[in-house]
Design brief:
There is one protein chain. The chain is of the alpha+beta class. The chain is flat and about 75 Å long. The chain has 17 helices and 12 strands. The strands form 4 sheets. A 4-stranded antiparallel beta sheet has the order 8-4-10-9. Strands 2-1-12 form a 3-stranded antiparallel beta sheet. A 3-stranded antiparallel beta sheet has the order 5-6-7, with helices on both faces. Helix 5 packs across helix 7 and helix 8 crosses helix 17. It has 3 domains: about 190 residues, Triger factor/SurA peptide-binding fold (Orthogonal Bundle); about 120 residues, Chitinase A, domain 3; about 100 residues, Chitinase A, domain 3 (Roll).
Length: about 450
Amino acid sequence: MIRKLIGLFILLGYVALSNPVLAQDKTVDQIVSVVGKNIILKSDIEGMFQQQQAQGITTTGDMKCEILENLLVEKLLLAEAELDTTIIVSDSQLNSSLEQRIQYFISHLGSEKEVEAYFKKSIVELKSDLQEVIKNQQMTQQMQEKIIEKATVTPAEVRAHFKTLPEAEIPLIDAQVEYAQITVLPVITLEEEDRIKATLRDLKHRIESGESGFAPMAVIYSEDVVSARNGGELDYMGRGNLDPAYAVAAFNLKGDKISNVVKSEFGYHIIQAMDRKGEQLKTRHILMKPKVSPDAMKKAFGQIDTIANIIRKGTMKFDEAAIRFSYDKNSRNNGGAVINPETSESKWKMSELDPDVSKVIGKMNINEISKPFQTLDDKQRPVYKVIKLLNKTDAHKANMRDDYVALSNAYLATKKEKTLDSWIREKQSGTYVHIDNSYLNCNFKYKGWMK
């Protein structure tokens, strides 16, 4: 149910809007249920049903009944959230989510004009329609988090739970690896940096003189491929979401002025502020990245090859060399050990690895050090790496010694689901619920809807 609700939250902001023709059909848009003071429309169910069919989602039961029950749970959470004074959605949270939703539409449909044509309304009208929906969505999410945060597990509970698991229910753990890396970034020449800065200064002059607009220049010249398609536009962001140098320049801009050339970890930019809402700034930029010369790549290869040979000879340990020489700050202070950002652990499924790393590590033995190989870092810059395979486990049934974290997370998810389950059954009895007769034959998981 928790997983279903998460999917519901993602869809909720545009279920009623995703099919304008359906939303305008008065014969379809009828109330099929009321939970507290919140209603569920037939168009909500039909819209989500069409989306799930389009995505190839199937079920062994009645899909429309399952959709209705998910919506009933969402409205039950919303009814409780409206009574809870600790559930608050700030204007900045709401505005940020609205902008994200509009950008989602733009990225899928191509432009603001395409969005307006599809929904048959202006962006301003679309935001107005979405405002209450997104606010309700955020309140519901907060309410669910408040309910399930009470669920916790201890090591003793995990051990006891694991002992009671039937053999068939013990989870299968995918093959995993742990590895460390040393990264060398080729040096960019001053001449190349000067060339990039001069090009950007020329683009700024051409825009300010009226020769061309910022957006067309971004489409043609910017190396930020995603934003370039939208004329260089980025979403509303706070200082903490931006590169520090970019943030300082952007937040100091006045009116529609264009910044001087700004150097960030991603390359060089010129920036224009478009709109500001509190501490959230919407900008557009043109990014250009200095190119690495063949000589610089050759020197970087020589440097990392020398480091790898020093380690293989035993003159220096891998972790010491990583701390001393590696350019990657995320792994450097861990002695080169690479942490999986999704789990905050050092273990990686092979499918989670960067393809270049996966290709190399799949042929390695534990404690082996790879030959240097070229790849891209998280800023999409060419780098050379050597990696050391620290550990490798084949696919296996979970055990407490090797897989405690995975077992603990799985058991915690189960407890959270049971906590939410109990809350739903308790709240059903004390909340007004009415369901249209056309859905009375639904085989709901929670029987308390029918009173």
